Amino acid sequence: MSLADKITMLMARPGGENAQKDDIPWWMRYAGRGLGTVGSFIAIILGLLNCTGIIFLNVSCLIAGIWQMLAGFLVIVCEAPCCCFFIDYVQVLSDKVESRPYWNKAALYMGLALPPFFLCFFALSTWFGSGLIFATGIIYGMMALGKKASIDDMRTSAANLEAGVGQPTTAPRATLVTNEQPFSFTGPPTKS
Predict the structure, then answer these.
(1) CA distance 86 to 92
(2) Residue 24 DSSP SS3
(3) 92, exposed or middle or buried, with CB in 10 Å at 0-12, 13-18, 19+?
(4) Is 146 left (phi over 0), alpha (psi -120 to 50) or beta?
(5) Across 43-47, 51-55, 92-96, 148-152, which has the greatest mean pLDDT?
(6) Threshold 0.85, pTM exceeds
(7) Fewest C-beta atoms under 10 Å: which of 110, 174, 177, 192?
(8) How many CB atoms lie within 10 A of CB 114?
(9) How far apart are the first and last CA of the chain?
């Protein structure tokens, strides 16, 4: 058993399936989980710092800070439910999010991270806190794209495209509508 397998076994969720669902590298999974966990803790702390904008009567920064703290909490619930074991529904929500495809998690995290940018654009705490959540979404988006093809497969595909073999049937030059009619101008309608 390799070191990576031992770490995977230690980090497995209790009651979760231990079989790998896809061919994503182990380091990318832990990068997403680790950045999501650590980044959401930092986002909560920086969101609290962002809420001090109310002292200067900046309500939009207060709302951005609250949003950032809620987004950080939701990411912690999804990525590290052991940090919130005192809340009953956390494991259910975490399992539901874990069963979704990676692109769903990417869209969720990126969507949660964007509103604070628009509400309080010039605060560094917004950029760094929500930026970590957004970066977690980017990692999950890269995981959704899947594994890159081998160099031999890419060379073969490029050679086939250069030679004209295996051209897609729906090339941009292809006719979109098979029964198209020529366009003509008939003039304005006449009164009857």
Answers:
(1) 13
(2) coil
(3) exposed
(4) left
(5) 43-47
(6) no
(7) 192
(8) 16
(9) 88
